[in-house]
Amino acid sequence: MTELTHPLATVPRGELVARAEADPHRPRFHFVSPAGWLNDPNGVSQWNGTYHLFYQYNPEGAFHHRILWGHAVSTDLVHWEDVPVALEPGLGPDDTDRDGCWSGVLVNDGGVPTLVYSGRHGERELPCVAVGSPDLLSWSKAPENPVIAAPPAGVDITAYRDHCVWREGETWRQLVGSGIRGRGGTAFLYESADLRSWDYVGPLFIGDSSGDQEATDWTGTMWECVDLFRSGAGVLGGPGGPADDVLVFSAWNDGDTRHPLYWSGRYSGDSFEPAALHRLDYGGRYFYAPQSFKDESGRRVMFGWLQEGRPEEAAVEAGWSGVMSLPRVATQAPDGTLSFAPVPELERLRTGHVQLPGQVLVGAVDTGIAGKQLDLELELELSAGSTVRLGVLGSGDGREETVVELSLAADGSSGTLFLDRSRSSLSAEEEGLDTEPREGPVPMPGGRVSLRVLVDRSAVEIFANGKPLTARAYPVLDGGHVTLAAEGSARLLSFDAWTMGEIFGGGRVLFP
Ligand code: DQQ
Question: Looking at the domain assignment, is residue 279 inside a domain?
């Protein structure tokens, strides 16, 4: 690790891991970096049976600076083992990635593991390539870097970085995320025979940044981390219907990481014909920069970055920042929308099963369940006009609680998932915590809802009929009580709860 010192590097490196481990807000069954800063998932993949998770990492401290690629492996998508850092910024003054190895992907180049990433130099990022050893544990940067010398000429761009690379017949195709000033976000399409020499094809599709900037589906002035895939059985470029493909991107605006969105539509030839725009996770920036891959069993598995909801100074003091989401499987419904569920492998962390009897919910129910690492599964039936509230991370006396609310409209036509964080933490104001609510629509045919809530200390992942809402909460009181209450008429069909185990046994080192 190079010895460069940033003004925010106030915690001695030797103390970072212990500080991070001692923080009660640090998740125990989500992947987190050994300490320091983590952001986007990169190079997510399965290679000869082993899952690989690379990630944007700054071991210098809990702030974003001079990013390198951390690397962890898993055989079950649940337990992760740190392996050596994969990419570090170049040390030469002219190196394309002198100021950071930004996000990218892993591809299989005829058996050779190959990373395509954004090398940062000053304020500019350019596409770079690195080649891995057969075990994917050591990486050499290609002498040809940058493999694309500049963004497309004659286009006034807002930014240019991040990659989606796939094979189509004999040809490699690549998207680089970008934005055209005054028009909207975009993804530039390129072609190559060897991943080293690329021909520019054109913009795959251009968004429209003129809409309401406050809207939860505003598409931004630049698209980060574009991810194009076919979610069904077919392959990109093969025959498909008008909504068979998905173009995921993270809407960005001038340094502001807004939210992940996706277009359903059809990728064909050199363009993407959109059918509809959708929100990917109702938590917005709490599930940012997602990246997905098809695993060896054919599942589309996605990871995202859970940003912090506390100020940078608090994270710096805590010695760590950023949580990787639990891996979630994406499937596509006939209407083109995506449905998500945590991978079933996570169930191996469950212990201490508790069940509540099915019942008509009238007022509040004493669940008797408590814990800061929980997996909760509820089947509910709401009558029109009713609301069910599930409180987690509660102090038990009403002072602190994070509330997951499900409601069905009075005419029964639409459902809503709402997360109330106004009482998540007693010290929200003095600590400057984000307590903004989050919400989004959930189809509730017949008033039925399958609700899954995974609580891992400050990380909360909610799935209501497959629609995700991810967020952070930082309670200061102990308890972790779970409460259940209804307004109007609702039935609890089943309620299963488990305590979740831990995935790291300690002994992690800052710079594996
Ligand atoms: N984070 C990376 C970029 C990407 C952004 C830098 C998204 O490559 O655009 O750490 O969070």
Answer: yes
